[in-house]
Amino acid sequence: VQDVAREKFVLQAVKQTDSMRMEVSSPKLAIGIRGKREVSEADCYRHHILLKLLFAMMFGWTSDRFQKLYESGKIDASLSLEIEVTSRFHFVMLTMDTKEPVALSHQFRKAIRNFTKDLDITEDHLDIIKREMFGEFFSSMNSLEFIATQYDAFEHGETIFDLPKILQEITLEDVLEAGHHLIDEGDIVDFTIFPS
């Protein structure tokens, strides 16, 4: 079977901020980062893991940022992280319920742009997140449904079954490099849903 030539993927201009009103009980904030540099097909899964480690250190439940915001009531357990990495495009998206979406968006966007100075990005914190991911991986191996849905998640290169090996080899420098790959030339946008 011959490979079908793909047209060049053209990134459209983004609207850096937008909002709308809906029937929701609390404001909802989404912050997205779209990368512009290409990722090779063989590296997509590893790059996905690197970005997950980076953003988990910055915004995950083990981060000082999350703990302080949670204790002050500015965010709740709804904070979630979505990462998509393909050879044609990649992005990271944070979504959350918050009573202070404008202030929180400014704080998160600033933290993302200045990620190399983030006090939560350390060797010790990286080890904690790695151990958490190891645990989630081995727990998921008990689920046939999970294995079936993950098998073809990355068509070329490494797969979910390579996770333990990938995690063992990843260094803090690798994580920071992936951050530069995404953030330095990437677009950061936010979208807020306010109660009507």
Any overview of this molecule?
By secondary structure, this protein is α+β, with helices and mostly antiparallel strands. The protein has one domain: 2-Layer Sandwich (Cytochrome Bc1 Complex, Chain A, domain 1), CATH 3.30.830. It has helices at 44-59, 64-71, 101-113, 123-140, 144-150, 163-169, 172-183, and strands at residues 17-22, 28-34, 80-85, 90-97, 187-195. A 5-stranded mixed β-sheet has the order 1-5-2-4-3, covered by helices on one side. Strand 3 and strand 4 form a beta hairpin. The longest helix has 18 residues, at 123-140. The mean pLDDT is 89. It comes from Streptococcus mitis. It is an enzyme of class 3 (hydrolase). Keywords: Hydrolase.
Tell me, what is the CATH class?
Alpha Beta
Look up the CATH topology.
Cytochrome Bc1 Complex, Chain A, domain 1
Largest sheet: 5 strands, mixed
- How do the strands of the widest beta sheet line up side by side? 1-5-2-4-3
CATH superfamily: Metalloenzyme, LuxS/M16 peptidase-like
Which overall shape is indicated by the principal axes computed on the Cα atoms? globular
